[in-house]
Specification:
Elements (H helix, E strand, L loop, with lengths): L6 E5 L11 H9 L2 E4 L2 H11 L6 E4 L5 H13 L3 E5 L12 H9 L3 E5 L4 H9 L6 E6 L4 H10 L6 E6 L4 H12 L4 E6 L7 E6 H8 L7 E5 L12 H13 L4 H12 L3 H17 L9
Parallel strand pairs: 1-4, 1-5, 2-3, 2-4, 6-7
Antiparallel strand pairs: 7-10, 8-9, 8-10
Helix pairs in contact: 3-4, 6-7, 7-8, 9-10, 9-11, 10-11
C-alpha cells in the first residue's frame, strides 16, 4: 500500500550480564527483517546466549559506516521492513551509533520505537550515592588535554549531577582535570564493570579518586560527579565574574551573550557583570606583559 512504511526498533542490550536482556529483545531479534548491529560478532554471541536465531538480514552499523549505511536502512524502512538496531551495550544513539538513523526516520515520518534496556548512565547514577533528582549526561570528554579542560570549564558551575563515560587508560588524567576545574574535594563516583563479575564502585573526593586511578584501572568506566554547590552573589568577586564570561567566550558565545548568561546564573545585574569585564579589559591593556585576559 502506498504510504505504508516499516518500523525502526531501537533495542537496549545488556551492559554486562546477559541475563539483564529485556524479554522483548529476543522476540525482536527473531522478528526483524533487518538487524543492524554495531558489531556483528558480538551480536552472534548475544543471540547464542539468548538461544535465538535471527531470521532477517544482518548488517554492520558502526561509527565508521554510519553515514553511508543510513540511506540503505531508510530505503528498507520505506519499503516496509522492520529494522532492529542494536549496539554493543546499552541503548543505541546514547554515545553509540543511532542518532543519524533516527533523525533520518523522523524526517521521513517513519515510525521509531524502542525496546528499553539496561543503561550504564542510570545504573551508575543509582549506585553513586550522589543526588539523582537532576542530572546531565556529558558522554566522552575530548582526548586532548586543552580541549578536555575547556569542556569541563563549560559546566564548572553546573548544579546538576554530571555523568561521563571514559576509557580506562585516560581515567587518571580525566579525574585530575576534574579536580583542577571542579575542586579537589568535589564528590564523585567511579563505576567500573557495571553488572559484571568484577563490578566496583569507588566513591570519594576527586583528588582521592585521581590518585587511586593513577595506579591503573581496567574495564568499562562511568564517572558520576556531584554538581556545583550553590553560591550567592556575595560569594562572587569581579575576577570570578570575568572568568565565567571568558569560559563562555572560549566556548563560542559572543561577549554580550556571555555577560547576560553569567548575570542570569549568578542573579546579579547585567551592568555589574559588564563593569567587571570592562575593568578587566582596561587593566589588561595597562599591563601588556601580564595582560592575557579579555581583549
Amino acid at each position: 500500500m502506498v504510504g505504508v512504511t516499516g518500523t525502526l526498533v531501537l533495542a537496549g542490550t545488556p551492559i554486562g550480564d546477559t541475563a539483564d536482556a529485556p524479554p522483548r529483545l529476543a522476540a525482536e531479534l527473531e522478528r526483524a527483517d533487518v538487524v543492524a548491529a554495531e558489531d556483528t560478532r558480538r551480536l552472534r554471541r548475544l543471540t547464542q546466549a539468548l538461544g535465538v536465531h535471527t531470521q532477517g538480514r544482518v548488517v554492520s552499523y558502526f561509527e565508521g559506516n554510519e553515514s553511508a549505511r543510513t540511506p540503505e536502512l531508510v530505503e528498507a524502512l520505506e519499503g516496509g521492513a522492520r529494522v532492529l538496531l542494536v549496539t554493543d551495550a546499552g541503548m543505541p544513539s546514547v554515545s553509540d551509533p543511532g542518532y543519524r538513523l533516527v533523525a533520518a526516520c523522523v524526517e521521513k515520518d517513519i515510525k521509531v520505537t524502542a525496546v528499553p534496556g539496561p543503561s550504564a548512565v542510570l545504573t551508575a547514577l543509582a549506585l553513586s550515592g550522589l543526588p539523582v533528582d537532576r542530572f546531565c549526561f556529558e558522554g566522552f570528554l575530548p582526548r586532548k588535554a586543552g580541549e578536555r579542560l575547556g569542556r569541563l570549564r563549560e559546566v564548572e558551575g553546573e548544579r546538576r549531577t554530571l555523568v561521563y563515560f571514559e576509557a580506562p587508560h585516560r581515567l587518571d588524567d580525566t579525574l585530575a582535570a576534574m579536580a583542577e576545574v571542579f575542586g579537589a574535594e568535589r564528590r564523585a563516583a567511579v563505576c567500573r564493570e557495571l553488572t559484571k563479575t568484577y563490578e566496583e564502585v569507588k566513591r570519594g573526593p576527586l583528588k582521592d579518586l585521581a590518585a587511586w586511578a593513577a595506579e591503573g584501572v581496567r574495564g568499562e568506566i562511568t564517572v558520576v560527579v556531584e554538581g556545583a554547590p550553590e553560591t550567592g552573589p556575595a560569594d562572587l568577586d569581579a575576577a570570578e565574574l570575568v572568568r565565567r564570561v571568558q569560559v563562555r567566550e572560549e566556548a563560542g558565545e559572543r561577549r554580550k551573550e556571555a555577560i547576560a548568561a553569567v548575570a542570569t546564573e549568578t542573579g546579579l545585574p547585567k551592568r555589574e557583570v559588564f563593569d567587571a569585564v570592562v575593568a578587566a579589559k582596561n587593566a589588561a591593556r595597562q599591563s601588556p606583559v601580564d595582560g592575557k585576559g579579555l581583549s
